[in-house]
Amino acid sequence: MGRIAVTDGMDDSAVKQLEDAGHEVVLKHYSKEELEAGILSDFDAVVIRSATKITDKVIRSSSGRKRSLKLIGRAGVGVDNINMDAATKSKIAVCNTPSSSTNAVVELTIGHLLSCTRHITTGDRTLRNGKWEKKNLRGSELSGKRLGLIGFGRIAQGVGKVARSIGMTLHAYDPYLPAEIAADQHCTLHDNIDDVFRLCTHISIHCNHSAETHHLVNSERISMMPGIGIDGVECGNHLVNCARGGIVDEVAVLNALESGALSSVALDVFEVEPVVDNPLLNHRNFHGTPHIGAATYEAQARIGQEMAALIIDFLKGRKPKSILNPEVI
Amino acid sequence: MGRIAVTDGMDDSAVKQLEDAGHEVVLKHYSKEELEAGILSDFDAVVIRSATKITDKVIRSSSGRKRSLKLIGRAGVGVDNINMDAATKSKIAVCNTPSSSTNAVVELTIGHLLSCTRHITTGDRTLRNGKWEKKNLRGSELSGKRLGLIGFGRIAQGVGKVARSIGMTLHAYDPYLPAEIAADQHCTLHDNIDDVFRLCTHISIHCNHSAETHHLVNSERISMMPGIGIDGVECGNHLVNCARGGIVDEVAVLNALESGALSSVALDVFEVEPVVDNPLLNHRNFHGTPHIGAATYEAQARIGQEMAALIIDFLKGRKPKSILNPEVI
User: Which ipTM score applies to this complex?
Assistant: First the structure.
């Protein structure tokens, strides 16, 4: 049976699922040196989250004599920590669990939007510091405003559904989305991303990080945002990123908070993680969480179960639905 | 024409509305001594928020020779700061603006629910303190859980609508509500409040504060909460109060946070406001805001406009819709 390395942890029930199917599971975080020295060549599959980096060098050392790595399973969504070209060249399949964490990110995004517009973290922080800042904490309502969604996949659609129930109208930019999906979700799809920034006082990011989307949120686009809702309320401009660091230019965001071009920003993801000495953290209208978009008990259980089922099927010779480089099979 | 005192501020557009109708508006906060000395006897109406206390003594001194106070307008909802019996005895009408702030409180309640279950304030606070606490901040999802609403009026119904869109199921206790309204909103109405606590991992308070509801949330009821969602997830128990201080026993809540009977609590209202030296504020899983439920630009504009229209009509001899002591007219 198969040998599976789990380097960044996995839900207990999922580990049991693999073992019950007869596979050997090794739960251990390997150092960069161990990975580069070829430790994965003694496994059929490796399950990682974001902490383990699968570089070209790691992949080139992952073919052994007895066994060879055949599958990299990303327990989660983003594969920025995997060298996809190298994996494909070495005929190693890469799979993720794209839908398991959807609802967790949807709820965090809505939480951040409301926390920003209603000063929840600021209210809590000032209360703890002995101040009753009621008069300084007048906020604005999401209802009656436009929400701009950059990327309109599963997560953005989930955010949109809740935002609509609050009373927002939806605008999106997603060059890869069939127009009828947006229409089904009562969302206006735009061909030009700048139009979304021009129309919307509230923007939430839901795309991948790639060369195409790097620093997609920059000073110029922030300066296009209207600051006044379609209901005539001067609610300011608000930005949320629970997708990937690097899509938002953090220097531009700090400048925009300082100039007032942005009234608030909420980031769950950062250009450098863990965050160290980022001047953004000191701004009153910054709201941050440490990359916890998928960090719910529910999502971790779903991710583990989906990954375990996928590996079991793969090792029986079936092609996984969520394979990201289907050309290797 | 009428003379109107506005003692706790009012939206500019509403003041203009009153002046355009020919009334004189005096925007001034009066001290307790001035109020008790009869300053209001020279006005036809007074508009207050929560800061001005209209006591028996203030009311007894509000009948003058030239004019007499005829209307107390509460720009907002709660009238705990008005002695209703004394007002009724003196034939002074008391009106509020009950629906203007509904959506503002709905959004804050949902924000607090998500902030609690996803550790948003804790994430922000620890980030600002230079810590990357990703591993300690695993949360739980609202989707798939039961939300218990204590009181099922306009605000609770609004919260329920958004909570349902997130995937929660609704349970409520409201002895004054016709059962068909709950059914229309897909909410199970219970005759016994304890049943709501027994069934629900998440409870939100949406009733008035009265002798009947004082310390309605106590240790016994908190201990009934299940801690495990109907989806089987050990999400803990979560309590939100954006209604009125005093409904929740704060000592019981602190004990419950310490024992783990509650995993989180979010309070926008407190037994004593402003909050001073409340030991709750030091608990990691407490989330607080300084009574900002109605503190949005939208709500304040709606409140002002509704109050101005009401006063203009009242001074023309029409009975206001939102009169709380109709027996005086």
Answer: 0.90
